[in-house]
Amino acid sequence: MSLLDDFAEYQSRTAHHSAAATTTAIASAGLGSSQAQPADLAVQDDGYITTTLDTTDAPIFSLDTVQFQVPNKIIALAVSNDILVLVIEGAKALRINLQHAHDIVEIDIPLNPQSLRACSLFLDPSGAHLLLSTPQGENFYCHESWDQMRPLSRFRNIELTAVAWNAPALASAASAAASLSSGTVLVGTHDGRIYETELRPSDDRKQKRSDAPMRLVAELPVRERITGLSLSAFPERRKHHLVLIATGTRLYQVVGAADIEPQAALATDRKTSVFEALLRDGLSVPNFQEIPGMPGPGALAVYRREVKAPGRLQAAAVVATDFAWLTSMGVFFGALTFAAQEAGDSVVENASLLPYPTLDRDASQDMPPEQPLALAVTEFHILLQYSDRIRAINMLNSKMVFEQQVSDGDVLQGLTVDEAKRTCWLFSPLNIYELVVTDEDRDIWDIYLMRRMYEEALGHCHNDSQRDVVRRAQAEQLFAAGQYEKSAECYALTTVGFEEAVLRFVDMKDKRVLRSYLVTKLGTFNKQERTQITLLVMWLIEIYLSMLGALDAKAAAAGAAYTENTQDQQQQQQPDLVVQCELEKDQMLKELYALVLEYKQYVHAPTAYQLAESHGRRDFWLHYASVCGDYQRVVEYWMEKGSYLQAIEVLGHYGTPEMFYKYSPALMHAEPASLVETLMRQPNLTANKLIPALMRYDEDGRAQKADGGNQAIRYLRFCIHKQNSRDPTVYNYYLTLLVKESAASDEGELMGFLTTYGTDMLYDPDYALRMCKRYGRIQSCVHLYSLLKLYEDAVDLALKHGDIELAQIHAERPADDDKLCKRLWLKIAQHVISQQAPASAVMELVRRSNRLGIEDILPYFPDFTRVDDFRDEICVALEDYEGQIQELRGEMDEAGRTAEAMQRDMQLLRRRFAVVGESEGCQVCQLPLWQRQFYVFPCQHAFHADCLTRRVVGTCNRVQRRRIQELQSQSVELARTRRQIKLKPMVRGGTAGGKEESEEQVEAQVRRNRAQMDALVAAECVLCGEAMIRTVGEPFGDDGDGDDGDGWAI
């Protein structure tokens, strides 16, 4: 039967692990347990029912028997990283991976089964390297990949009593061994010697011995058995280490530097060992604790935990924090604190000696307490193993919290701890026990509370009710000690009634106490409790304002006293007091501003403003308005104080368009340049809504006094040229300001505006003309007349003011109307002649116009004007007339020749004909053309008139179709009328003259109908004209064709 068959069936425990989970390996390992803990309903203080595991009533420690049938008696046991190794009689060892408990590896020990009665097992933190040592000095090594132990040839005849593994390996032990090597290992022996070695499996599977290196690195000053050995690294000093060496009477502390990086060379390859210098220096002047009397068991246990180490690359470092040592007089235990210690310094703090508890049988027989056989250390407890029981003692209060005996006849032989998985194991020859640790720190908060270590107590509370008890006690203790502010902060975090707590502090003269309570209490409310938050915030604001007022009064009184008593001995203290008050006030204002900023949505604004005004704190009033976004109040505040620049600055950063429209009139009057600069940085403003402010600025006369120019013109110019405003109001007012600001002799900017935007006409030209007339801007008026196409008025106005050059410019504006241009130039010439200008000036005007001749201006000269000055011009004019007459004569001759040619073409057109064969058929019905009236087209296609008409009616549009039908109806009616007219003389004997007149009218109508029908029907050939081209997208068949498609069959 295999060893797997020895496992008994079991039922694993099912529990919901809470934050304080049960520390056990039985359930996870798949090994059976003799106890089970059910999941109960836990009712919390607030009435909420949770289905998590109720660990309140469950014991912290419970001893469970592992349901595993051992094939033989157990000699030794070791557990590490969920790897459990048993040594049983018969020179066998069993390796069990608790994660896969059914897979058991049987390991052979090359010893005589009868000689293996006792041994020591040492398993490294990763569970990969195993050392076995017998009292006879037989030592063996086994790697996790082997199924047989190999003797350590170099350690022969040396009993190994203690091993210190590389403690940093604990950090990676939970996953797997970092490498094949164990790293540097310290080994203690029975004769007080310490060796250094490194365990590494050989690649040669046939090799029967292990040649692990061995180097003697230290000997104890007093050569006695080494019972415990521990190696720990400093968390913030990578190369500094602590080596604890325990014997039956002494505990050595060795501190020093050693490089034990995993990549270091093997011990056999080094010229010097890793720990030799450290141990040599540390033991030369040894730092040790000695317990007098008989040697004790000497077992050493160290508790390690993962802590953050800022000086290391790893996320967390494994650091030794507590230790315990079995002596003849009790358990010596304490804390390990790593700092800047060097060789010879101690790292032990708060050490104490705990006497062994008395057993019942010892007390009854008046015997000294029995010494435990082994010990282990958990986070808060010391475990003591006796031959028949296990005890747990709290390290904080030295009280025994657990004791349990094993079944009668069973003798416990060892205790081991899996440091990686935090599990505890015991064994007897026939049984394996697991000490299950559940919620170990359950009562730790209460112990710290009794010792008034409140912060530590809070750190170990599990629920709000426990924290409330701790804070109440802390608050009462601080209140009794007179530390009222800290007491108030603690009270605020408890469930003590608000009224009860406030009554303790409200009457105190120092308002800081009540403030501290309210500030801390405020942080405990949920955001949904708006009413409570609002009340507390408003109360705090009032308290802060009162305290600020008191500080102002105190500073004022101190300053006045200093002024009156300058010779007093306290003259130096008074200004110091004033400075101190100012510093306190600044700090208090910062706290108040931070409070308002954090809770601004809960502040009742009207009350806040009222409080600020009642206390005269305009600074707070202003700050609160800024915080809550009430910038309108801020602007009004600065304007009331006359600080217009500050008001403009607030507007520039936080102002809305409505605020600009509201306050710009007053600010434009006070600080126009700064306001305009700010307005130009606001892209969302509507310029026409700012015109009232600009008009007030203009009416006040500030524009004429401003050194920087008219700011209204500056802003409107920006709106038009930079923002591309298209608002006619803006353009009209800008033009108004330009008209007012420009001088009659310098209309440059005004004319530039009219010239640039004249074609768009975004301003009112009639209004602009009125303004220019009103202020006498003649050049602009003339330009506006031209824009309105009133060219004669423009020329008249220019001539009225004697500006001949301006008149000439505008006389050329109607370039597309030669008659008007000539008339305008005649006006100018007449004005020049009327001014008795010299003949040369008049002739220069004629030449410049390119439209006037000497004959045009001669009528305007006086009757007795001498023509000698115009003789040459007159001769030139006559020669021009003669040339024009010759051109007209040539044109008349050419027109005659053209008329004759056209007449000849018409005669030829009348004689044009087409030859039609006698067998020619209609292109539609294929019948001979001669049977009835027909049409022949230039393309030689011929059609019967009725066939062509039907074809055209089928392809033309609805209007043409209706018109053809009307003409056909009229033709039938005219034929009937013509027949009646021909028969009328025969019936009535009428005169021939009436018949001919009526018949002529009918014939004329027949000809008109025929011409219209020809125009509609015979306009083009239906086979090669546009009508045929338009039918290219139509199908060949029509609705009359059959659906079977037989007509298209090949």
From TrEMBL:
<dbReference type="InterPro" id="IPR000547">
    <property type="entry name" value="Clathrin_H-chain/VPS_repeat"/>
</dbReference>
<dbReference type="InterPro" id="IPR007810">
    <property type="entry name" value="Pep3/Vps18_beta-prop"/>
</dbReference>
<protein>
    <submittedName>
        <fullName>Tethering complex subunit</fullName>
    </submittedName>
</protein>
<keyword id="KW-0862">Zinc</keyword>
<dbReference type="GO" id="GO:0006904">
    <property type="term" value="P:vesicle docking involved in exocytosis"/>
</dbReference>
<dbReference type="GO" id="GO:0005768">
    <property type="term" value="C:endosome"/>
</dbReference>
<comment type="similarity">
    <text>Belongs to the VPS18 family.</text>
</comment>
<feature type="domain" description="Pep3/Vps18 RING C-terminal">
    <location>
        <begin position="919"/>
        <end position="1029"/>
    </location>
</feature>
<keyword id="KW-0175">Coiled coil</keyword>
<dbReference type="Pfam" id="PF26148">
    <property type="entry name" value="VPS18_RING_C"/>
</dbReference>
<dbReference type="GO" id="GO:0006886">
    <property type="term" value="P:intracellular protein transport"/>
</dbReference>
<keyword id="KW-0479">Metal-binding</keyword>
<dbReference type="GO" id="GO:0048284">
    <property type="term" value="P:organelle fusion"/>
</dbReference>
<dbReference type="GO" id="GO:0007032">
    <property type="term" value="P:endosome organization"/>
</dbReference>
<keyword id="KW-0863">Zinc-finger</keyword>
<feature type="coiled-coil region">
    <location>
        <begin position="871"/>
        <end position="912"/>
    </location>
</feature>
<feature type="domain" description="Pep3/Vps18 beta-propeller">
    <location>
        <begin position="59"/>
        <end position="437"/>
    </location>
</feature>
<keyword id="KW-0472">Membrane</keyword>
<dbReference type="InterPro" id="IPR058919">
    <property type="entry name" value="Pep3/Vps18_RING_C"/>
</dbReference>
<dbReference type="Pfam" id="PF05131">
    <property type="entry name" value="Pep3_Vps18"/>
</dbReference>
<dbReference type="GO" id="GO:0030674">
    <property type="term" value="F:protein-macromolecule adaptor activity"/>
</dbReference>
<feature type="repeat" description="CHCR">
    <location>
        <begin position="682"/>
        <end position="841"/>
    </location>
</feature>
<dbReference type="GO" id="GO:0008270">
    <property type="term" value="F:zinc ion binding"/>
</dbReference>
<dbReference type="GO" id="GO:0007033">
    <property type="term" value="P:vacuole organization"/>
</dbReference>
<dbReference type="GO" id="GO:0030897">
    <property type="term" value="C:HOPS complex"/>
</dbReference>
